[in-house]
Amino acid sequence: MDGSTTLPTLGSLRWEPALDHLDLVAPVTADALRRWADADPDVAAGVAVTEIDPDLADTATLNEAFSLPVEASANCVVVGGTRAGDERIAAAVVRAHTRADVNTRVRKLLDVRKASFLPTERATAESGMEYGGITPVGLPAAWRVLVDARVVQDGEPALVGSGVRRSKLLLPGSLLARLPGVEVVDDLAVPVG
């Protein structure tokens, strides 16, 4: 991106510049978007938001309702484990037609004996985000943000949560790779099925 980026669009949803509609995202996500935009001029034109019915927030339901390609959606799951009494937490962002390889790849990256999904109540409380809306944008600084390389391919959009269930963010995967704190990881995900 070179600063002349056009707002991304996908499906029949109405997309608006996210920075102009920060009331649609979680407060922690709004703060992170502002800071990111201050550091990277492509964020203003590259990150879009759309308001949705919260009952449609789940990936499969949203894709069906708006005829969205499952390949565009990226899910963010929160995983944790311990090593010598030290807890290590990471968010794993993978395309919706794949699943995070928690038991092998994520566990090795965290360097823990066993990795498992954080309980929903804890993930939402500590992230400041709603279940079904957790996004890599605005997560706690102490958490690692692992993004599967398939999510950040050039030219491919990434449809992610906004921190709340009533909206979604859309941005080029290549821009997501530049989100502060993101670690792009090959083979973070495995195919579903």
Descriptive account of the structure:
This protein is α+β, with helices and mostly antiparallel strands. It is 24% helix and 28% strand. The strands form three sheets. A five-stranded mixed β-sheet has the order 6-3-4-7-10. The protein has a four-stranded antiparallel β-sheet with strand order 1-2-9-8. The N and C termini lie far apart (35 Å). The relative contact order is 0.22. The model has no long low-confidence stretch (mean pLDDT 94).
Element-by-element helix/strand order: EHHEHEEEHEHEEEHEE
Shape: globular
The neighbouring-strand order within the major sheet is: 6-3-4-7-10
Rounded to an integer in angstroms, the radius of gyration calculated over CA atoms is 16 Å
- Overall residue-averaged pLDDT value: 94
Given helix and strand content, the structural type is alpha+beta
List the helices and strands and how they pair.
Layout: E1 16-17, H1 27-39, H2 42-46, E2 48-51, H3 59-66, E3 74-83, E4 86-95, E5 98-100, H4 102-110, E6 116-117, H5 120-127, E7 144-148, E8 157-161, E9 167-172, H6 173-176, E10 182-185, E11 189-191
